[in-house]
Structures are given as C-alpha cells and as structure tokens.
Design goal:
This protein has 246 residues and is an alpha/beta fold. The chain contains five helices and ten strands; from the N terminus they run ββββαβββαβαβαβα. Strands 1, 2, 3, 4, 5, 6, 7, 8, 9 and 10 form a ten-stranded mixed beta sheet that branches. Helix 3 links the parallel strand 8 and strand 9. Helix 2 crosses helix 5. Bound molecules: hypoxanthine.
Length: 246
C-alpha cells in the first residue's frame, strides 16, 4: 500500500474519498495526526499530514519516528513525501517540481534511528549511499511526465533544522556543498524509512528562491510563499492521482 506524507500546503488531500481515520499509537509516541485511509482515483492509499492537519507541528518537532512507524504498522510498503523547498540551483525556480536523488543533512538534535543503543544490542550501520528508493522515484517521474510537468529529474536536497529560514551565507555554503534545494523535513524521514525497509521518495516543490538567490537585497516574503504554494499544490494533487494509478 502507498502512503502520502503531505507537507506545508498539503494538510489535506481533496479528491481522496475517505473511508476511515485511525489514531495509531507507537512505541515512539504519537504521529502528527490520525492516518487517513481512502481511495485516490480508485486506489487505496493512506494520507498523513506531516505538520498535523492544522499545520501546528514545526519541522524540528515532527515525530518522524512515530509517523513512519505508524505507516509501517498499517502495512504500508511505499511512501511518497511531498516536501516544499527553497530553490538554490538556478533550475529550481519557484513553481518547479523535482525528484531529488541525494541528501545532505544539516539537522541536529532529532531522533534519527529506531536502534536502541545501550541495552547490549550490537551497533548497526545501514547503507545510505542512495537515500531514496529508485522504484518510487521512477514512479513519481513517470507520473510527473504524464501530467506534462517540466520537472527536475534529480538533485541534492539539503535538510536544515528550521524553523527559521537561512542566511545568505548559509545558502552560499550549501551551494558550495552541492545542494540544489533546501527544506526542513527530509531528514531523518528518509533514513527512518530506510531502516523500516519502506520504499521512500520525495517530490520537492520549490516555493521560493532560497535566501539571497534571487536578488540579495530581497528578503523572503511569507505571502509570496503562500501564493506559490497554493498554485503548486493544485498541480501536485494531479500528480498524486497519477502516482496512485501507476
Ligand atoms: N528554506 C528552508 N526550507 C524551506 C524553504 C527555504 O527557503 N522554502 C520552503 N521550505
């Protein structure tokens, strides 16, 4: 079964014919909200709003372990994350969608593993060379192509701590590091999915130029982000119908 984790701008999924909602408790605490089960274009899926249905959970306080555990416990095998990002690379203009293939993690202080160390269990190191599941990435890209989207087929997602936006110097450093886009929620989500054996990929939606990328005198306007987000999420919904079908 496919799960969709909706990010900022996608706290609900119009077009989803809801059959039930379920509050799932996990050994790691409560997920961001109830899991919503339903049919998308006739295909059964589960939807979860990463920041809660009222968008009240900031990126650094999302219980990523509980979210993915809850989905896994409901027999989810594939996860599509919708993530809003700021564009660093010139190709990542606001309004553009991308299917990143790499991650650089700048977060700190988040719970990053299900492994319980200190109780005698041996230390394990999961391979994370390719953070995203290729099968899910291909499915997303096929859906984007079907919808006529001029998307970017790859890219490095730099995950920052938030909730603040970055300084111009931080974005310049991220560009030197090879990051093409910046967001706040990609990690540890992608790694936890890997630990659980979930086939996980993200569709990133650029909703603004990252700090200093457009015109260094300009600051990032929340209103502008909201407007781009509203416009782009209409398109994302169409892509999701396609992903559910494929
Ligand atoms: N920075 C970090 N996260 C974001 C941004 C940004 O500019 N835009 C959307 N998510």
């Amino acid at each position: 079964m496919l799960a969709i984790i909706g990010g900022s701008g996608l706290t609900q999924l119009p077009g989803l014919h809801i059959s039930r909602r379920e509050v799932v408790r996990t050994p790691y605490g409560m997920p961001s909200g109830a899991l919503t089960f339903g049919q998308l274009d006739g295909h059964g899926i589960v939807f979860l709003a990463r920041h809660g249905y009222g968008h009240t959970v900031p990126p650094h306080l999302v219980n990523y372990r509980a979210n993915l555990w809850a989905l896994h416990a409901q027999k989810v095998t594939h996860v599509l994350s919708i993530a809003t990002v700021g564009g660093i690379h010139p190709d990542m203009r606001p309004g553009r969608l991308a299917v990143p293939d790499q991650i650089v993690d700048y977060t700190h202080g988040r719970e990053t593993t299900y492994a319980e160390y200190g109780n005698g269990d041996p230390v394990t190191h999961h391979d994370f060379t390719w953070p995203y599941c290729d099968e899910m990435r291909q499915r997303c890209m096929a859906a984007l192509a079907e919808c006529g989207e001029d998307f970017v087929a790859g890219g490095v997602y730099g995950c920052v701590q938030g909730p603040r936006l970055e300084t111009k110097a931080e974005i310049e450093r991220m560009a030197r590091d090879g990051c093409d886009m910046v967001g706040m929620t990609g990690m540890p989500e992608a790694y936890l999915a890997k630990e659980l054996g979930l086939c996980y990929a993200a569709v990133a939606a650029s909703v603004n130029w990252a700090a200093g990328r457009q015109d260094s005198a300009l600051t990032i306007s929340g209103d502008q982000i909201e407007a781009t987000m509203a416009q782009i999420m209409e398109r994302v919904r169409r892509v999701l119908l396609s992903v559910a079908r494929l």
